[in-house]
Amino acid sequence: MPLEPLVCAHTAARVSSVLNRDVKQFGKQHLFDGSEETCWNSDQGTSQWVTLDFPRPVKVSQLHIQFQGGFSSRLCTLEGCRTGEELVKISELYPQDSHAMQISFQLEETVLDKLKITFGSSTDFFGRIVVYHLGVLGERL
After folding, report:
1. Can you give the pLDDT of all 141 residues of the chain as single tens digits?
2. Which segments constitute the F5/8 type C domain (predicted)?
3. Whole domain around residue 42: which residue ranges?
4. For a tag site, which of 12, 41, 107, 124 has the least CB within 10 Å?
């Protein structure tokens, strides 16, 4: 069965911060808009994150992510849960400090309603993270 993008208009996304609170220019909507000209840019801080609440259960298989080189994360921790449950760690990923789309992250397939991606160690001295594209692929249940 082919993988499908799981983030849709009904997926509730939240982010830890937005650079200078400029949501119009750097907000979470730019994670999924498909444009190479826009991005989510976090503010300074030691740990940045993105959460996704899916409208129905999903089985996540892959994560695609494109950082801006110099503003990437050395460690991404993925946590997930079903509605009403506590988040549990699914995986730790070690992305490259690169502007290239990174699609090699194969995840152990897990059924969940919520996914949290924590960017624990930024390559930027101030802890900022810049993401041009975030893709979550798998199967809707």
Report:
1. 678 899 988 999 999 999 999 999 999 999 999 999 999 999 998 889 999 999 999 999 889 999 999 999 999 999 999 999 999 999 899 999 999 998 766 677 789 999 999 999 899 999 999 999 999 999 999
2. 1-66
3. 4-140
4. 12
Pull the structure tokens for residue 101.
Answer: 């789309």
- Please tell me the distance from the alpha carbon of residue 103 to that of residue 86, in angstroms, as a whole number: 27
In degrees and rounded to multiples of 5, residue 122 shows phi and psi of -80, 145
What is the tally of helices (H) and strands (E) in the chain? 1, 8
How close are the terminal C-alpha atoms of the chain, in Å? Answer: 13
The span from the CA of 75 to the CA of 92, in Å, is 7
Indicate the pTM of the whole model. 0.93
b/e per residue 44-53 (b: at least 16 CB within 10 A): eeeebbbbbe
State the CATH number of the domain containing residue 46: 2.60.120.260
- What CA–CA distance (Å, rounded) separates 30 from 139? 23
